[in-house]
Structures are given as structure tokens and as C-alpha cells.
Amino acid sequence: MDTTKIIQALNYLACHQPDRQLDNMKAYKLLWLADRYHLRQTGRTITGDSYYAMPFGIVPSDAKCILENAKTKLKNPDGYKDKYIKSIENHQFKSVCDPDLNVFSESDQNALDKVLNLYGNYSALELSNLFHKFPEWTFYQDLLKDKNTKNSYKIDLNHFFEASPEDGKELFADNEELLELTCELYHQYNR
Q1: I want to staple 152 with a disulfide (CB 3.0 to 4.6 A). Which of 24, 52, 79, 116 is the partner?
Q2: Measured CA distances, 42 to 36, 47, 67, 126 (Å)
């Protein structure tokens, strides 16, 4: 795996925002929602990124590195990012070229569209407030409050399969049978 799908997912999200610009924090939250939704539907995430619980929410590790021009864990093809997205001031980025939709499966694109339809108009702060009610962040909440410990924890993606009482849009209102099946698929993919 490499960062191609992460870059295209960021680009796709930015293309659907005013002026094709997107706040980095909002992008992290939208990616999380799309990956969480897709994992629960199919047993795999769209991006393959690793997620970390941090004091202000959940952050996709390589997406953050890409937007901050830092070294990624996944292989990052030379010059690929610059063909599609450009970092701009105030922790934002801009889409500079239409996304390459060939990197996405139909279910990938459907998940991105569903998240954009439900949450695309939310601000970064509104999305951040939503984050703090999901099990993949609340599990680490007390650890993150301790100033004497590290300020980020790699999230066990099994938490993505847990229900949240705050899913007001019912994006994650899956039946138990489906969740059991997709959780099994996830574990088969990651042996």
C-alpha cells in the first residue's frame, strides 16, 4: 500500500467544498467518518491509514503527515501529492486537479459521498465535538487527560465496530449480523 488513496480521498473531499478548499482538521474528521463507515460496511477502510486518538480528536496519521509535508509511514510516491492537492495558509489545502476516481471502488466513492452529504457542511469544530462521543476516542480519553503521559495513542480499529449513542444521522446504524460479518472480514484481511 501507498498514500495514493489517501491523497485522492483528501482531493475528493476538497473538490466538494467551496473554492475546492478544505481545513485540515475538517478533512481528518471527514476521512475518519468515511473510513469508519466503510469498515463497518465492508470490513476494510478506504484509505488504509492508521488512526490516533489525540487530545482534540481522532487523526489519520499519514493524511496528517501528507498535509504537513512530513514523512509518512506508507510509501509516498514522489510528486504525486503536488499533482492533486496544495497546502495553503491557515492549515488548509486546495484541490488543484480533479481526483483520479480510478483508485476508488464503487463502495469507496459511495462512502465518501454519503459522508459529504451528511457532514460536508459541518465546520471543523462541529465535527470535532462529534468525535468526542465515539468509542474510539472515549476509550483513550482518560489517558489523554494525564499530562505526564504521551498525547497520542494508536486506535485499535475494533473500536470502529462499536456503537455510539451520538450517531444522530444514523450513519452507523448497522444491524448486528452485518457488523459481525464485516468484523470477521476485517480480521481476515489483517492476519
Answers
A1: 52
A2: 10, 13, 27, 27
